[in-house]
Amino acid sequence: MAAFLLLLSLSLCSFFSPILALPSNSVSPLLNPSSKLILPIQAVAASASRVYTNTIQGKLSARDMVQIALLCGVFPAFWYLRNGRKSKAYNDTKSLNGSAHGTIPKQSIDINDSELVDPGLLKKHSEIRSYTTSRFTYPSLRIFFIRHAQADKLPTKPAPLPLLVFIHGLGGSVAQFNPLLTSLVNLASCLSIDLPGCGLSAFDPKLPWDAYTVDALAELVGKIIEDYREKDTKQGVVLIGHSLGCSIAALLASTTSPQSIALSENVMGLVAICPRAEPPSEDEVSKFKKLLLVPNLIFDLWRNWDRRGGPESASVHRFVGPSADDETKRLQERFNSQSKTAVWRRMAAGTLPVYENHIAKGGLAGRDVWKGLDIPVFLVAGAADNITKPGEIEKIAQFLGKSHPVQIDPNDKSEPIVDAAAPVDMSGNNKSTSNDINPSIEKLLLEKNPDTAVESLEDPSTPDDSERTENIPPQPLRPKRVLKTTIIPAPASHALLYMPTTVRTLAGLISDFLCTQVSPRLSLGWQLQFLSTSGKWDVKNLAKWQAVAPVSEPIAGVFRAMKTLREVDDSHCPEVFVKDWGEQVKDIVDISHESPVYDPRGLEKGGIRYHKFPTVSKIPPTSDEVVTFINLIDRLRDEQAARKEKEGAEGEELDISLYVIWWKGVGMEFKGRSMSSLREDRRALNMLTSWTSYLLGTAWG
């Protein structure tokens, strides 16, 4: 009780301390000093300070106890007034891109609204469902599932490509995986879940706290996986977890897990991003339990205080570090704001074990769970991670019996992966060719048929069915146990899965691990080669595609609109495009949400950078998507200018479909504007949003 009163009085004092120190001529962000309420509020603050002092000195009187109760009663009214002022000020001054340059009626972005800023790819392939486990019913869960676009055209014997399952961490959501999903959906079918109360999944306050324990969440995720996994064809599963999600994944995959669901026999691999090796110690559990006694109201006060400064707040720096780029800070601020206090407290409590004779029971996965992983395991850490230190993966390696696991150098050339540009994009050129095949896959083909394998890799002609069958790499139902680890250098932090500077590297490393350790059929290069040589890989409407001009005239001297490339076309394919346009076009932004019918590596080989910004046809883009897109183009233009200055290049252009708004009759409205001025113009942005909505459904394929 004394500890609680101390914490409560400390919170009261901390919250009101700015008012106590308020100069008479200053303007407080909490309350205008000219307000009639300033004197009563300062009196309340003084009382809070005195109560705190008495608590520290152990002189808390009955009068102080009454004042604490009264102060708690003052909080709701003051909170309402403060939030009302803040909300009004936000709507009056916040511009579309978060600046204070102007007003955008009905276009302001509430970063707390997970649905409003949900990426288009996730929106199109998500549904809300109810699930009941052996103990609890979760009434409204957001499930993201996208089947591999070419699943029916790829080999299915002895089993189809495994299902990739993404599990987020404490306070996270599916949206944090969006940059990875944008890339990895091209490799296999993908499934992800907003855990109860997170992201777009509803929070049910009637559910007991036990419904949020790691064991309960693992059972829930396992049940959902079994619902989406193609059990009849023996489809396997690869689990990809982040932070707390790593423990859930380990519980599902381990043969020594106490989890009752028999999913481990179907798990083919595990990728753990920023994992924690073991549950908190007894001392840590004791401290955390005291912290969790703090009511939601007080906890919310602390969280709001901690978020002062927005992208530069302590809450953001704690996750991404003060030196992170602005885009990462903006995303982290959004994810922090979307995390609900009541849900966070329940899930945090669920990570705490119960100690019996100094042995942890329940909570986060520990030694006994990790050592039961009899599958390929890939551990990834960020060198600048302050939440889960890089040393955690060394502990897990020891649990697995590997004192010196295989280290992967993140700077090595990895299997090329599509660049996810929404909401982030990474620069850097990958020089792999469109005909490159991962060395391990080539070795498998050579071992299977040494006389024809190399020739088949180089010959673009269409082989007969028997030859294609011979060149299909094996699909093991139970890959051999192996451990690989990597620590991505700074500034890689706990947010490395959505940091612009690290997510491309992470996607490439995961892609490499999947195709070399889990199944060679998960190689993007092999899939594209198989589909192109079998005649199963092409545009949906070839006649319509052929009727469209390949490339438009220059737009505003910067852009060109382009129809999608076609790998098997004689003239409009990556190889020919690089030869014809490589001197002028240096960046291509693909706005389709589907997998391309060409290999982007052919563009990268020729020095044209490929960026993926997935949008969904006929679904109007959100204001946030428009701003993110503009920021992407701004950044690409800045990078082109830097390269031009460094290399003396001239005439660089962007090939980009979305900017056909300048080409479809509204160009004069925007011509002559820089992107910076466009961002600040309300009418221009409204038109940009409207025309983008129209053109995504009617323009180029």
From TrEMBL:
Residues 453-479 are annotated as: Disordered. SUPFAM superfamilies: (Phosphotyrosine protein) phosphatases II, alpha/beta-Hydrolases. One of its GO terms (biological process) is acylglycerol catabolic process. GO terms for molecular function: monoacylglycerol lipase activity. It holds the Pfam family Abhydrolase_6. Coiled coil: none annotated. It comes from the Eukaryota. Keywords: Signal. One of its GO terms (cellular component) is membrane. Residues 1-21 form the signal peptide. Residues 164-389 form the AB hydrolase-1 domain. PANTHER family: MONOACYLGLYCEROL LIPASE, MONOACYLGLYCEROL LIPASE ABHD6. This is AB hydrolase-1 domain-containing protein. It comes from Botryotinia calthae.
